[in-house]
Design a protein that fits this description.
With about 625 residues, this protein is an alpha+beta fold. The protein folds into four domains: about 210 residues, Histidine kinase-like ATPase, C-terminal domain (Heat Shock Protein 90), CATH 3.30.565.10; about 140 residues, Ribosomal Protein S5, domain 2, CATH 3.30.230; about 80 residues, Rossmann fold; about 110 residues, Four Helix Bundle (Hemerythrin (Met), subunit A). The strands form four sheets. Strands 1-6-5-4-7-3-2-8-9 form a nine-stranded mixed β-sheet. Helix 9 packs antiparallel against helix 10 and helix 10 crosses helix 15. The protein binds adenosine-5'-diphosphate (ADP) and magnesium ion.
């Protein structure tokens, strides 16, 4: 070794991770071999890709392979690859910091996952550090394909590492693990050979142990479907997806014309994004004639399919295409369209074949389907079929599809109705579904705030408009025929005449003019005295809530709020009494009117001024006990 040696401290989060790896993980140590081999294979793939476009390459004659050497005398295990290698800066950066540690919850999640199951740590992009489960020191000797000098990185994993210049290296990386006293089994050939067969069968470069190649190099996706066993698919999924459990769904799709495509896609069982460590990287790799041209490709599938794992291979792509050029390549977007449609179709088929299994998918990944609808107009039609919601005719916890809804719909019904609320119970207690219940019209319950946004983006399904039930201009099927007489008597036989009703709405509008654009006589309310409706199709009450939350965060409460309409129910005794009271005792009647408005706001899930409301409420109660 020549040149100066520099010492570096690990970053705080790396230290924490190393501490866990070294001190608390004793089971499943085999995983470290898989992680090191996977890094070697990545480095080889990267090199192969560069070597297609670059001519000036260092050590261009070296065969692309991974070699494992076991040294019983010195207790070392060495993994060598002839891949892309690392420069000094890359050694310092790639092996000294954790790439995705930006988010606060990341470390906590990582620690939890690592405690539960070490093999999960590869999914967090920290696989290299697993070497310290078995190694008391780890040396990484590396020389980049760019011809710069080689360097050696050394650490015992406790707090720091050193980097020094090391002349005479070949291209690629050598990781030398000096085994801990209790990890000596990793110098035994049978043991290593078994681990490689278990974990690394699909590495597409030869892995040599004592001069013997122990993996069969194969590209599963190019083989004939009928010849592939289920276990092979599962193993392949675990390999490409860095996964521990079996996939939920798989799609193996091959086409020759108009495009030559081989795609093997998997849906995992769990959604890691919801665990709180930020957006997942896309999990599908793009190949051309079995050569990796874009790992974790952002281009080959839409962003909202980033939860998929697998491989897309197309012979039609030019091998030497650069990553930038992939972005706006017309062929790539054609392939994306074909595969996306095919995948969505297969999901729809899976849903029909096994609805219960699809529900598992929907629970974990439904959010991506919704994201697709709001962000990608191109696939809305297919995505609409995949949506699931509870409804007034579904069982609790058993969501239905929009297609199910259409099947049950009466011939005169022209629209699909939905209403948002925090829960089934809350929706069913509210005023909005009264008329639907009375007329036996099914209404969809959307229980996530994003749902209204999704459905207003979708706008229609199979030619039927999607309509929020808090719309002011809602015309429920059949309304025209049985328009209720505005002045029909209530259950107590009393009735309001036309004039009184007109005066009452005028008067209420004046009392509430700060909050309400209009007071109208409802044709829909059955029991409740009043409800809030929205004149604007897009600005449903849910959207209002979402925006209000945003405004509050930004410190502009109240800004840009839209005025709503209040519908009143003339059959309701309270409303009828209010008409009398507004003449006899206008001030007290105004208190009641304001309270009715606040109550309706609360039922719509909208904000009211709680202090003012409570004070008013006491004033009203006081009157009641005095009477
Ligand atoms: P990940 O593989 O998920 O990125 P790792 O902790 O396994 O995370 O590796 C960190 C980084 O170190 C890799 O992204 C890569 O840049 C670099 N690296 C590790 N091993 C090698 C190798 N054998 N050859 C080249 N680079 C490597
Ligand atoms: Mg890795």
């Amino acid at each position: 070794m020549t040149g100066q040696t520099a010492t570096y401290e690990f970053k705080a989060e790396t230290k924490k991770l190393l501490d866990i790896v070294i001190n608390s993980l004793y089971t499943e140590r085999d995983v470290f071999i898989r992680e090191l081999i996977s890094n070697a294979a990545d480095a080889l793939e990267k090199f192969r890709h560069e070597s297609i476009t670059q001519t000036d390459i260092f050590d261009g004659h070296l065969p692309l392979e991974i070699t494992i050497d076991l040294d019983e005398k010195n207790n070392t295990l060495t993994i060598t690859d002839t891949g892309i290698g690392m420069t000094r800066t890359e050694l310092e950066h790639n092996l000294g910091t954790i790439a995705h540690s930006g988010s606060n919850t990341f470390m906590a999640e990582l620690v939890e996952a690592a405690k539960k199951d070490v093999s999960l740590i590869g999914q967090f992009g920290v696989g290299f550090y697993a070497a310290f489960m078995a190694g008391k020191t780890v040396r990484v000797q590396s020389r980049s394909w760019d011809k710069s000098e080689g360097h050696e990185w050394v650490s015992d994993g406790t707090g720091s590492f050193t980097i020094s210049e090391m002349p005479g290296l070949r291209r690629g990386t050598k990781v030398i693990v000096e085994l801990k006293d209790d990890a000596k089994e990793y110098v035994e050939k049978w043991k290593i050979s078994a681990i490689i067969k278990q974990y690394s069968a699909f590495v597409s470069f030869p892995i040599k142990l004592d001069g013997e190649t122990i993996n069969t190099v194969q590209a599963l996706w190019t083989r004939n479907k009928n010849e592939i066993k289920d276990e092979e698919y599962v193993e392949f999924y675990k390999f490409v997806g860095n996964a521990v459990s079996d996939p939920l769904y798989r799609l193996h799709f091959s086409a020759d014309a108009p495009l030559a495509i081989n795609a093997l896609l998997f849906v995992p069982t769990e959604n890691f994004e919801v665990f709180g460590f930020g957006k997942t990287d896309p999990g599908v790799n793009l190949y051309c004639q079995r050569i990796l041209i874009d790992q974790h490709s952002k281009n080959i599938l839409p962003d909202w399919l980033r939860f998929l794992k697998g491989v897309v291979d197309s012979e039609d792509l030019p091998l030497n295409i650069s990553r930038q050029a992939l972005q706006d390549n017309a062929l790539v977007s054609k392939i994306r369209k074909v595969i996306t449609k095919r995948f969505l179709k297969s999901l729809d088929e899976e849903a029909k074949n096994d609805p219960e299994k699809y529900l598992k998918f929907w629970t974990a990944f439904g959010i991506y389907i919704k994201e697709g609808i709001t962000s990608d107009y191109e696939f809305q039609k297919e995505l609409g079929k995949l949506l699931r919601f509870e409804s007034s005719k579904s069982e609790e916890g058993k969501p239905i599809s929009l297609a199910d809804y259409l099947l049950r719909m009466g011939p005169e019904q022209q629209e699909i109705y939905y209403i948002n609320g925090p829960s089934r119970v809350a929706i069913e207690a509210g005023p909005y579904i009264e008329m639907f219940r009375k007329k036996d019209i099914e209404i969809i319950y959307t229980m996530e705030p994003i749902d209204d946004f999704v459905l207003s983006h979708l706008a229609e399904f199979e030619g039927k408009k999607l309509v929020s039930a808090d719309r002011a201009d809602l015309a429920i099927a059949g309304d025209e025929k049985e328009l209720k007489e505005e002045t029909a008597p209530g259950e107590d036989g009393r009735k309001l005449d036309h004039d009184t009703l007109a005066k009452l709405t005028e008067w209420m509008k004046k009392v509430l003019e700060q909050h309400i654009s209009e007071v109208v006589v409802s044709k829909r309310l059955v029991d409740a005295p009043a409800m809030i409706v929205n004149p604007d199709a897009f600005m449903t009450s849910t959207m209002e809530r979402v925006l209000a939350a945003g405004r509050k965060e930004k410190g502009f409460p109240g800004m840009g709020e839209s005025k709503k309409k209040l519908e009143i129910n003339p059959q309701n005794p309270l409303i009828r009494k209010l008409a009398e009271l507004s003449v006899k005792d206008e001030d007290f009647a105004a208190e009641i009117a304001r309270q009715i408005h606040d109550n309706a706001m609360i039922q719509a899930g909208l904000n009211v001024d709680p202090l003012a409301m409570v004070e008013r409420n006491y004033r009203i109660l006081n009157r009641v006990v005095q009477d």
